[in-house]
Amino acid sequence: MGYVAVTAGEELVERAEQLFESQRVGDTEDVSVDQIDEQLSRLTARAMGEGGLYAPRLAALAVKQAQGDTVEAAFLLRAYRSTLERFDESVTVDPSAMIASRRVSPAFKDVPGGQILGATRDYTQRLLDFDLVGGSPEDPTAEWDLTDEGDPDRLTNVTELLREEGLLHDPDEPDVDDPADTTRESVTHPAERDEVLQELARGETGAVTALGYSTLRGYGRVHPTLAEVRVGELPVRVEHPYTGDDVTVTHTNVTESEAVVPVYEKRDDPQFAFGYGLTFGRNERKAIGMTVLDASIQLESEEAPAENAEFVLDTIDGMDSFGFIEHLKLPHYVTFQSILDRIRAIRERRGLSEDRRVGPDDQSAETPVSGTSDDD
Amino acid sequence: MTDHATPPDGETPDDEPPDGGAPVPTDSVDAALASLDSDGVAGYNYAYLDEHTKRELRRSMLKAVAIPGHQVPYASRPMPLARGWGTGGIQASLSILGPDDIFKVIDQGADESVNAANIRRLAENTADVSTTTDTTEADLIQSRHRIPEEVLTDEQRLVLQVPITDALRMVDSSDAANRRRHAHKNYGKMWVHLYENVVEYGEIQIASRYPTMVADRYLMDPSPIPRWDVPKLDDADHLTVLAAGREARIYAVPPHTEVEPLAFEDRSFTVERFPGRACHACESTDTYLVEVSEGATESETDTFETRYTCNDSSFCEKRRTNPGIPKDHHLDREGVDWGPELSDVATDDAENATERGGNDE
Hints:
heterodimer; B: 9 helices
């Protein structure tokens, strides 16, 4: 007790941490941060997207430290991010400035700029490749005959075509000059669309996918047609402190998705509704899930879970849900004692005997509820 | 990021920060990493949070004090602790702790809980405070789900960790709707819930998180303290700050504020009963007890023995060396003015309790 026990508590914490760390170390060769960055980029993409910090190397470190738990890794990134100084805000970038390495537009067979299949496993057979057990470091594209065709064309956004024809409802224009920052200002409902998009962009991949799926499954009205799914590099531009010109300082790898939804916005001028998704790294299912949720939330209904902004935003964040689900492991004996008191009081009131503990003899002592209740 | 034509040096085109100091070297990620691997908390601001954040929290607290029981939104920062594990409490604590303060952290009544130890370690490492387990010595007490047994004074502050900020959440999951109810002081739905409780169970079956009116204006979730602790908030000498990290709300019960748990005239508010029980270690009968089932596994049968023990482990320790000291032993006045009435609890046996239940009808 007292100081001794407190010290013991802290020692326990340290020991548990050491045991956890020893599970990572193991008997095999240490996985390097570079290897995770290069070979497990789907993990780092999830960590960066959910952490709201684009930093592939730090994400790789976080994934390594979290032993592959992406939500934990995202959490490490967020905790680190919150201590960093903010030097500047970047200039709002037009997504069509993306240098796409993959671009799919299911809405039309042919689109301006063409479909770019890019790197994907979408159409391969999901068979375990046992050759990888021994490692296969050879790059299958090494023999490709490539020619440099210069800078890629800027891709015309498919939704632009629909907008020109007036077929697409424009959502409320978010305030791009002074957007809300939900990491610095807590969300209250009803939330603005810029807040919704931020929260969705940082949402947990599984939660975004599941809630997005819920509406396709019938719990909601949105079944979108995707106009764009793109993966590529978006420039990060800042205003030069001396010249005042916009300069590109780096690129971020992002996945973007846009959808049209045949929910006709206005009866007198029927238009498609619109959904948007964007996430750091390569994470197509999250970007599409986000698109579905953005479109659903704009319906402002409480009929389906995915259409209720409050429900979606309250449950979508991995840090929140993971923390609170896992907090159930903390001791709860104070509250449980209080709950025991209530159920015993209620049983007493109904005339059920108080002192029944689990044991073979106790079955006979059970009092039938019906005969003894003094319920009013 | 191997899929695409990322510049080979990854995210390196790190711009030099403009003047104003650079907390972390930014010429390369490796340098940033190298600067951090020495000591876990080196390079962080005093009390972990930056001064701007701490000021924001203090302002939220001031607003909360000015409007007792009203939930004030604040920008809860991601902390190096999991959300739901005391991140609101630690943000509140770190924003008001100073180097001269003595800090006590308890989790479910115990200083030695590993989560309390973890929170205490963060404050020790970053805020340079000294810590104690003695309630009477502490300037600031952060607690999860308990108010200490020893009476707190007007020089002490209590920070309660809050998982769910709104008592109305029991009857409506929508915060937007509940904020409207608070604005209109419209607590009809909660009253109906309590009434239905009585109809269905004969009494109110809310165990902890008992809905409580503050200053006759706002309905408050007092955090999952047991009902036992709720009366301690009424007209207390100390300031109580309730802080939720995950839900990003702060609210407060200032000193000498009226705090009244909701109840009916014919179904009064009752605290947990421990009829005929006493702490097996210090023999207290006027403290919140928890039962511990201890297996007598060394013998051949699988029997269990249930023992009751004080939940406030620090006060129990004191009473063991100094039996029967009152809860206000450290104050210049007499008479325990803290917590439930003694007579209600200590002398009841099981029969009396049943009878009392019956009398309520």
